[in-house]
Design a protein that fits this description.
The complex is a heterodimer of chains A (74) and B (223). Chain A is α+β, with helices and mostly antiparallel strands. Chain A is 24% helix and 28% strand. Classes of the chains: A alpha+beta (74), B alpha/beta (223). Chain A binds chain B through residues 13-14, 16-17, 20, 59-60, 62, 64-65, and chain B through 54-55, 58-59, 62, 91, 97-98, 100-105, 145-147, 172.
Amino acid sequence: MKAKVLIRPKEGILDPQGKAVERALPALGFDGVHDVRVGRLVELETDDPSRLDDLCEKLLANPLIEDFEVEVEQ
Amino acid sequence: MIGVIQFPGSCDERDAVAAAQRVGDARLVWHEETDLSGLDGVIVPGGFSYGDYLRAGAIARFSPAMEAVSRFAADGGAVLGICNGFQVLCEAGLLPGALLPNEGLRFICRQVELIAEDFSGPFGSDIAPGDRLSIPVKHMSGRYFAPDDQLNRLEADGLIAFRYAPGANPNGSVRDVAGVVNDAGNVLGLMPHPEHAVDPLTGSDDGLALFRALAAAQQPAPA
């Protein structure tokens, strides 16, 4: 079964990468873009999707600084 | 005997061995080793273990040697994590908090001033609160973070070991935190590199105090 895990910096944690992207946009003519946050996407295939949350908490994300969402493709 | 863990991607393990050998015996411990008997202290060194993939330290924490280090620490053994080693210890849950990419998104390599806090455990034996130490940092992800309530507890319990001197915070760490200890005081992690500050010829020997403390540590008695 295919799954996608979306990991992003927790609310309130400074994301300098997002800030850098945000500052670059006006120079390219993309005005009015705010609150850019950069996370990452992990794609995987698993035989046991019930263990995905556990797997995310233990390895793919650090719950102290990151939130994650799991999306299983049916 | 002090053991220095060597992961694929470590790069400061030999300097850590050389620094520890100035004050005692030291040897490398390959990341697949699980027998730490005979060691009085352990150093988790700097570098880019497992390529820093996913997050710095995230994969190294699952190596066989790190599982042995967790047991060693639980038995009361002295563990010093430097830079990537600090990141690994935080990821492993042996130390509170996490290390995020530097605020300025640049790799930082320079000498910084640290101020020692009043912290407990073997590592404070040779360092007095308020001591200023000149030690280099070199890292990409050195921004210490913990939530406010946790930071308040760390401060109240005397678990902050080092702070960057006022105005010297290189990476945006919360409350200028440069290093912390665990509740028992036997595990210490810091971003600056004491193993690169062991000889006045290269600027400072302020880092030696931590290696002296480690060399004086007692072998843990397994529970």
